[in-house]
Amino acid sequence: MSARILVVDDIPTNVKLLEARLTAEYFDVLTANDGPSALALAASEAPDLILLDVMMPGMDGLEVCRCLKADSATRHIPVVMVTALTDVGDRVRGLEAGADDFLSKPVNEVALFARVRSLVRLKMLTDELRTRQATSGEAELLEQAEEPEGAGGSILVIDANVRSGSRMKEYLENAGYDALLCTSKDSALQICQTDRFDLIITAIEIAGEDGLRLCSQFRSREATRYVPILMVLEDMDLQRLAKGLDLGVTDYVVKPVDRNELEARVRTQIRRRRYHDRLRSVLDRSVSMAFTDGLTGIYNRRYMSAHLDRKLMEIAETGKPVSIMLFDIDHFKRVNDTHGHAIGDEVLKAVTDHVSESVRETDLLARYGGEEFVLVMPATDVEIALKVADRIRERLSHQKIPAGPDGSDVIVTISAGVASTFDPLETPDALLKRADEALYAAKQNGRNLVFGVNGPATPDAKRAARAAVGD
To answer: Residue 197 in 3-state DSSP?
Structure first.
């Protein structure tokens, strides 16, 4: 795994030492000797991780961290404080300033690369979600994900030692969290299938069993794949921690557990979890918006074209035809001119609802543009498609759509063209062109008609068509 790392320290020897270690592991290293330079490089170079010395003259590491987290351009960059300070209070202040973790001087190489790789993976996940959201063109949705989240959350504590587990549970409940204690791996896995948690806290040993194996099971299951995991361990377990971070452990705390440090780490992990959840939520929403029509809620032209293309290719496997119905609302401009565009929108939605209720689940209805719609009917030959289209036309002609507070109603009709194919090599554009030609014939022959490429849909429609043209 490669990444760009910014090393910040006012002592050149410390900078060179960290730079040499990271470069040997194929990381791209940037360096800064003071706070202002670090902020400038973070803004211009967008590193994947910042190793930040706490004790620096002028602007110290805590102030630099606060500035980084206050800037929307840099707040998502993980920050690891590198310090000679060992007091728990100093770690808590760093966590409250926004730091993701601490490394003590002299820096242990195993701990260094374990934290770097873990946090870089997390940063890459965040970047991917943010990039996909930004490129969707919905910038306002991305801003919504940045909104602060309230306190509290649901936490699962896993510890076979009831005494220490209960104490942890009490700490969390006093801090305003809902905490549940499980004393075995099996019960923890089972409850996670039904209950949702914002954070999982687990001991590294659970009744003599390996807690790291439990973490790997959480990461392999859909329900817990993205839930942050905070591991509780002894000083002697730090060598195993590197493996835990590789397996997906997102943070850790060393016994004896300090209540303030625990609360700070829990708060950070839950905040990050909720941010990722919001990113995924707005991404799902933007994807939905990209393929659906905002007014009617049905699929849009882009999605319909891709869907139709897939269905045409499936003909080669199934040997079954695909038919489409292209239709529009007769004299729709008159509806807008008479009743206003608001009522016109209601007419479009009402037509969509009535057609949706008249077709199979396997059929796909899409708004083609304006007052035009397309119905894709897989495994349907032209004769059946013509009957379906004429049934829809007949049903719509008898619907009364409310036109406003005056109690008046709008009655609309549609004209439709139907085309069908057995050819898997036919393109969506070619099939739509044939349906459009049939739709044009329906309009030319008096509207409120369904035409196929060979003429009107039914004997009644044929008679109506002949009457419309005076035949």
So the answer is: coil
Q: 168: Cβ–Cβ under 8 A, 6 or more apart, which residues?
A: 157, 159, 179, 181, 201, 232, 257, 262
pLDDT of residue 149: 54
Query: What CA–CA distance (Å, rounded) separates 284 from 241?
Result: 34
pTM for the whole structure: 0.57
Nearest Cα residue to 326 out of 462, 160, 437: 437
- Looking at the DSSP bridge assignments, the partners of residue 202 are 158, 231
Block means of pLDDT (10 residues each) for the chain, length 471 residues? 88 92 92 95 94 92 93 89 74 83 80 80 71 52 50 91 93 93 94 94 90 92 91 83 84 85 86 78 66 90 92 92 96 90 92 93 94 96 94 92 73 94 92 95 94 64 41 36
Torsion angles phi and psi, residue 42, rounded to 5: -60, -40
Q: What share of the chain is helix, strand, coil (3-state, %, to 5)?
A: 50, 20, 30
Place of tokens 């007769």: 330
Instruction: Give the pairing type, strands 229-233 and 199-203.
Output: parallel
Domains of the chain with bracketed CATH: 1-133 (3.40.50.2300), 136-283 (3.40.50.2300), 301-468 (3.30.70.270)
Q: How far is CA 186 from CA 115, 181, 211, 223, 233, in A?
A: 29, 13, 12, 15, 20
On whether the CB atoms of residues 170 and 193 are closer than 8 A, the answer is no
| pLDDT tens-place string over residues 4-23 | 999 999 999 999 999 999 99
Q: Is there a contact between 377 and 418 (Cβ–Cβ < 8 Å)?
A: no
Q: Which residues are catalytic?
A: 371
